[in-house]
Design a protein that fits this description.
single chain, mainly alpha, 16 helices, two-stranded antiparallel sheet, Farnesyl Diphosphate Synthase, about 350 residues
Length: about 350
């Protein structure tokens, strides 16, 4: 049994938002792809093979596109944003390689994960290689503030992953604790990706602050929807299996809400399946039924809409432009994803 989370908004409109952004930054994005290929090069064949397996597996390049569009929206005319967009993609890919090892994942975007093919040790080490390449690109940007923003984001992401380990299997996790985790492990890179676009465009503190807010709130909304979708039949279209978070004992917002709202017997169910990891056939279906019963999935999406609205509001200081309109559309994409 699986539930499709109904989210207001058109799937076609969401797809159009991504394609529109990609068309808008197409020339710059091609340069980013070339930079990625160049900086994946290594005399050790396994490195480009393993990294390329994930980088070329159909990801939308959303985070680097945010860097490109943010810089252009702020009036930037150089090419440093290309290096920074490639850097952002390397950081993101490195974290995915590490995540799949930690989560023991078998699939990503419908394909076998790198750790399934090459093993955990190789995946971790190539992830480290990509982090190193990311720092080389940061340095090449020759901007200390950019270096500070992206290096700090890398540290915050790692802290978020550790916080997630701490909250795993802990049904006492609060909504505030959960938000701290996703703000660090997901939103920090969205925030940095957008913010550096304003920084390289010049001394524009208002625009920098606006893009910081846009990226942070967009990232939180993105992860909230991701966590709701884990209990949705739409996961199959993402190349993932339904209930991965449940099986791994991850305490995401849907479980936090259902646990708080449940009866004593329902809380005993969550303690058995999440805290103790004692799961039987049919437990996932029961978990989904409890999430529906207490409105946990719908309320998680409602929280995502709230953060999406704050991301949209942050763009209000920018003059009307194709870039501003496209970034606004990406909020709808992030909140309305059901695939």
């Amino acid at each position: 049994m699986a539930v499709i989370v109904n989210i207001d908004g058109s799937k076609a409109g969401s797809e159009h938002a991504v394609s529109n952004l990609k068309s808008l930054v197409a020339d710059d994005l091609e340069k980013v792809n070339q930079a990625i290929i160049k900086h994946m090069e290594s005399p050790v064949d396994m490195i480009p093979n393993l990294a390329g397996h994930l980088i070329n597996s159909g990801g939308k390049r959303l985070r680097p596109m945010l860097t490109l569009a943010s810089a252009r929206m702020c009036g930037y005319t150089g090419d440093t944003h290309v290096k920074l967009a490639a850097c952002v993609e390397f950081i993101h890919t490195a974290t995915l390689l590490h995540d799949d090892v930690i989560d023991e994942s078998d699939l990503r975007r419908g394909s076998p994960t790198a750790n399934t093919i090459w093993g955990n040790q190789a995946s971790v080490l190539v992830g480290d290689f990509l982090f190193s390449r990311a720092f080389q690109l940061m340095v090449a940007a020759d901007n200390m503030k950019v270096l500070d923003i992206l290096s700090s984001a890398s540290a915050i992401i790692a802290e978020g992953e550790v916080m997630q380990l701490i909250t795993a299997n802990n049904t006492a996790t609060t909504e505030d604790a959960y938000l701290k985790v996703i703000s660090a492990k997901t939103a920090a890179l969205f925030e940095a990706a957008c913010r550096v676009g304003a920084v390289i465009a010049g001394d524009q503190p208002d625009q920098e602050a606006a893009l910081l807010s846009y990226g942070k709130n967009l990232g939180i909304a993105f992860q909230l929807v991701d966590d709701a979708l884990d209990y949705s039949g739409a996961q199959a279209k993402l190349g993932k299996t339904v209930g991965d978070d449940f099986r791994e004992g991850k305490v995401t917002l849907p479980i936090v809400l259902a646990y708080r709202r449940g009866s004593e017997s329902e809380r005993d169910f969550w303690k058995r399946t999440i805290e103790k990891g004692d799961q039987d056939d049919g437990d996932l279906e029961k978990a989904i039924a409890l999430l529906e019963k207490h409105g946990a999935l719908a309320d998680t999406i409602e929280r995502a809409r709230h953060y999406g609205s704050m991301a949209r509001d942050a763009l209000a200081i920018f003059p009307d432009s194709d870039y501003a309109a496209s970034l606004d559309g990406i909020v709808e994409f992030c909140v309305s994803r059901t695939y």
